[in-house]
Amino acid sequence: MKRHIAGKIVRGAIVEEVPTPDVRVIREAAHISQSQFAKLIGVNLRTLQNWEQHRTRPTGPARALLKIVASNPKAIEALHTS
């Protein structure tokens, strides 16, 4: 386990790479500004900007929501209603 955590090759270990969503592409496909998108998905504007500039990566519920919007950019409209 320590070797795997350290990034060393461990025989028999299965490593799956989970692709990081391209937040900028997703947001632009929805035709919405950064500030509006951040507000709709419930994150700070700086967080969204960090995702778009690949400084940090979305995780958990934000990642799931981005996957939904990526598959159907019009899905963001459901968040407009309060």
Task: Describe the protein in words.
This protein is mainly alpha-helical and 82 residues long. The protein has helices at 2-5, 23-29, 34-41, 45-52, 60-71, 77-80. Helix 3 (34-41) packs across helix 4 (45-52). The longest helix is centred in the last third of the chain and has 12 residues, at 60-71. The model has no long low-confidence stretch (mean pLDDT 89).
Summarize the structure.
With 82 residues, the protein is mainly α. It contains 6 helices and no strands. It starts with a helix and ends with a helix.
List the helices and strands and how they pair.
Blueprint: H1 2-5, H2 23-29, H3 34-41, H4 45-52, H5 60-71, H6 77-80
Helix pairs in contact: 3-4
Q: Please state the structural category.
A: mainly alpha
Proportion of residues in extended strands: under 5%
Low-pLDDT ranges: none
- Overall mean confidence score, pLDDT: 89
- Measured between the Cα atoms of the first and last residue, the distance is 47 Å
Assembly annotation: single chain
Order of helices and strands: HHHHHH
Shape type: elongated
Annotation, overall tally of beta strands: 0
Q: Main beta sheet, described? A: none
- Our count of helices gives 6
Helix content: 40-55%
| Cα Rg | 16 Å
